[in-house]
Amino acid sequence: MVKDLDEFKFKDRKLDSGVLKLITVARLAEKKGYEYSIKAVANLIRANSGIKIEYIIIGDGPSKGSLETLITKLGIERNVKLLGEFTRDQILKLYGEAYIFILPSVTANDNEQEGISVVLMAAQAVGLPTISTFHSGIPEVVMDGESGFLVPERDINAISAKLDYLIRHPDRWGSMGRYGRKLIEERYDIKMLNSKLVRIYDALLTDNMALLDELRGLQ
User: Fold this and answer.
1) Angle ∠(14,1,55) on CA atoms, nearest 5
2) pLDDT averaged over consecutive 10-residue blocks of the chain (219 residues)?
3) CA distance 219 to 210
4) In this structure, what CATH number is given to the domain that contains residue 88?
5) Within 13 Å of residue 22, how many CA atoms lie on the same side as its CB?
6) Nearest to 99 by CA among 9, 158, 6, 17
7) Residue-number span of the structural domain to which 91 is assigned
């Protein structure tokens, strides 16, 4: 759930600079699937030499060393940056500067999986089109084809293809961002959910069946 949706300022995304800025915010751990987004971005850089791409990754964790090695091996140090941990305010600022959010989650070798991803909620709340995977509870948060795109786990080519599509269709960014914001407002805004719960409680106390019928769709 998003505790204070008012902190996440919505922005209608339009390419207003010469740099296509991609962002991921998550712990550097195997289940986040970073190696697949990094390889996908490397493919994208090779295929779109006329577009300047910057992919920033916010977070720290046990995969940092292997990801640094991968970035160097692919020769994309100028494009892909592991920036470490940032404060909440710093992250919100970077959200405002980015155009697309990526979270390529996978089932780890020890079978560890994501839960309901709060970072995906936050990304959509600020209006970022998102690319993630058909993994655990993620399809409940990202509506494939509406607020972003979902691809199979570990599918580098599919991530590249969806990124390429969004690069070629910036006209989709705004509608995806607005759909994602509306989704988070309706399903995951804790203030709104608490208000509905209070109304349900009041309806139960007063035996107001009409109000209960109205609130039956509580997510």
Assistant:
1) 35
2) 76 88 96 97 86 94 97 97 93 95 96 88 95 96 97 98 94 96 85 47 48 50
3) 18
4) 3.40.50.2000
5) 30
6) 17
7) 5-187
